[in-house]
Amino acid sequence: MKKTKSDYVYVGVQVLLFALYMIPVSALSFSNHIILSVLGMLLLVLGIVMGFISMLQLNTNLTPFPTPVSGSKLIEVGFYKYIRHPIYTSILMVLFGYGMHEASGYKLLVTLALLLLFFFKSTYEEQKLSIRFPKYVDYKKRTGRFFPKLFSN
């Protein structure tokens, strides 16, 4: 499928949010407890592992753009058996975990903005995937967007 202007806008905003996350802002810092710090690091490590495995599972289908690559296949194994967008989930886990560890309200706010972006980006992506893969609609019914579904429809 051919990339559209929307593909570049989504990726551009994503890169901008990543850059904003990196800015050291202390204005919204909060008092950190050791438990929050440790939980944050645990979330960060789990996110890194999940992201790495998810990228390996996606293999040649991997692209930062929401439009699927030409010749791609629908992946329904590994993390993709339970979650439609595990790479987005892993990025959010890493950034949220680090924000907790650093006790940075600023980083947590940027992560929330990224969650909002990922919601809209994944909605757009799923429209494209539904066109590319007719069985995507059924796949969508049995998997969660960012987290596994607890209850089936």
Automatic annotation (TrEMBL):
Keywords: Membrane, Methyltransferase, Transferase, Transmembrane, Transmembrane helix. Signal peptide: none annotated. The chain crosses the membrane at residues 7-28, 34-56, 106-124. InterPro entries: Metal_cation-efflux_comp (IPR052527), Phopholipid_MeTrfase (IPR007318). It is a multi-pass membrane protein. It is found in: Endomembrane system. One of its GO terms (molecular function) is methyltransferase activity. One of its GO terms (biological process) is methylation. Pfam families: PEMT (PF04191). Its main location: membrane. GO terms for cellular component: endomembrane system. This is Protein-S-isoprenylcysteine O-methyltransferase Ste14. It comes from Kordia periserrulae.
